[in-house]
Design goal:
The protein is α+β, with helices and mostly antiparallel strands and about 425 residues long. The chain contains nine helices and twelve strands. Helix 4 packs antiparallel against helix 5, helix 6 (about 290-305) packs parallel to helix 7 and helix 7 packs antiparallel against helix 9 (about 395-405). The longest helix has about 55 residues, at about 10-65.
Length: about 425
């Protein structure tokens, strides 16, 4: 389909066209109405004078019918009686009319005529309408010339004014269009104190979000590449050693390394996939979930790997959510606490009015106040947890917060009763077990 010229799509052209249409219709209707009003007003004036003529001439005709002959030629008067009398030869050509004034044509000229019965016969009087027709014609000509001129003038004014009003929008468009992928730090001018200034500020905030998203994406890709490269390098290193020096290692040792690093890579990829789905705000299946069953299952798992777990504070609680994702939340928090605990991990779960509260506490060194928000960033590991065997992938807490917030809740870090870290998850619930 052939594209229309840009001018027909511009706001300026549409505003001008709209002004033209509205002005033309309004002024056209007003012009026609004016002509009709002028014609009717002048005709009504002639009708009033005609009624007065009928009264005055009727009185004179009743006294002396011959006085009709001496009436001014501006009027056409005819008295139809035993002896018809008229003041002009054209008066004899007046067609028969009623008492209501009506327009008639006599010898090519327009008249307003009316009749009335007198004692001497039927009196017919006609007044000329030349001045009415001339006035209507003059008014029509003036309006026919003036209305288009006014419409054109208004369109010119609207075109100029709308062009000046939209000039800042075009300038803003050019500024935004000039910002490329490598210039996301640039911003548009937003110094105006009006709607355009607000639009510029909104666009600057949008650019801020785009720039931040791009930085986050770059950092995410860089960190993910680094995290994936590390286990791959470990597997390759052990494989090369086994190939060059087969006596220095065994199949059991090599398979152990491959299995451990493969599990680490699998956990990392699964975490990335979950975060990607959460970033895209994909919907997930929601069912009634017994959160206490998930918590007690994770407690048994931790005890199976030698971690001391205190579950005395776990009560019955049910929430609406995705069981697989909520299980991931509990596992991430439990693994994080087990990694940093000195001896004991404490799990508490309670149902309150309108919400469910899950607390996971360790008796380790805790999290410094200045790092309590940063631990929820992706691939963030504090300095003391940088080692591969204790630091994890750096996605657990980030994934936990994203999942919890997708369920309408939140997770925060605070100090535990024993000085360790206390992570508290709050989820919406009906408060019933």
């Amino acid at each position: 389909m052939k594209a229309r010229p840009r001018i027909t799509r511009s706001i300026r052209a549409r505003v001008t066209a709209g002004a033209f249409a509205v002005t033309a219709v309004v002024l056209g209707v007003a012009a026609v109405s004016t002509v009709i009003i002028v014609r009717d007003a002048l005709t009504d004036g002639v009708a009033v004078a005609l009624e007065q003529d009928l009264d005055s001439i009727g009185d004179r005709a009743e006294a002396d019918p011959d006085t009709v002959r001496s009436i001014d030629d501006d009027l056409l008067v005819r008295l139809d009686g035993p002896t018809p009398v008229a003041n002009d030869d054209d008066a004899s050509s007046i067609p028969s009319v009623s008492e209501t004034p009506s327009r008639v044509t006599v010898d090519g000229d327009s008249f307003l005529a009316a009749s009335d019965d007198t004692e001497r016969g039927r009196l017919t009087v006609a007044r000329p309408l030349d001045h009415v027709d001339d006035s209507v014609s003059t008014t029509t000509v003036l309006l026919a010339a003036g209305v288009p001129a006014v419409v054109v003038l208004i369109c010119i004014v609207v075109w100029v004014v709308s062009g000046r009003a939209l000039a800042p929008v075009e300038r803003l468009r050019r500024e935004v269009d000039a910002i490329g992928a490598d210039d996301l730090a640039d911003r548009v001018e937003a110094g105006r104190d009006d709607e355009l200034g607000e639009l510029a500020s909104t666009m600057n905030r949008l650019l801020d979000r785009i720039e931040q998203a791009r930085l986050t994406q770059r950092r995410f890709v860089s960190d993910a590449s680094h995290e994936l490269r590390s286990p791959l390098a470990t597997i390759r290193q052990h494989a090369e050693v086994a190939d060059v020096h087969p006596s220095s290692t065994s199949l059991s040792e090599l398979s152990g390394v491959v299995l451990a690093e493969g599990a680490r890579m699998q956990d990392l990829v699964e975490g990335l996939l979950i975060l990607a789905r959460l970033d895209e705000h994909r919907g997930h299946t929601v069912n009634a979930v017994d959160l206490d069953d998930i918590v007690l299952t994770e407690a048994r798992r931790l005890r199976g790997i030698g971690v001391d777990v205190d579950t005395r504070g776990v009560g019955a609680a049910r929430v609406e959510g995705n069981e697989a994702l909520l299980s991931r939340v509990v596992r991430n928090l439990a693994d994080n606490a087990a990694r940093h605990a000195s001896q004991t991990v404490t799990l508490r779960l309670s149902a309150g009015p309108g919400n469910v509260r899950l607390e996971v506490e360790d008796d380790g060194a805790g999290i410094p106040l200045e790092h309590r928000e940063r631990v929820f960033d992706r691939f963030t590991r504090l300095d003391e947890a940088r080692a591969r065997d204790s630091g994890g992938s750096g996605l657990g807490l980030a994934m936990t917060r994203e999942i919890v917030r997708s369920h309408g809740g939140d997770v925060v870090v605070s100090d535990g009763s024993g000085g360790g870290a206390l992570l508290t998850v709050t989820l919406p619930g009906d408060g019933r077990p």
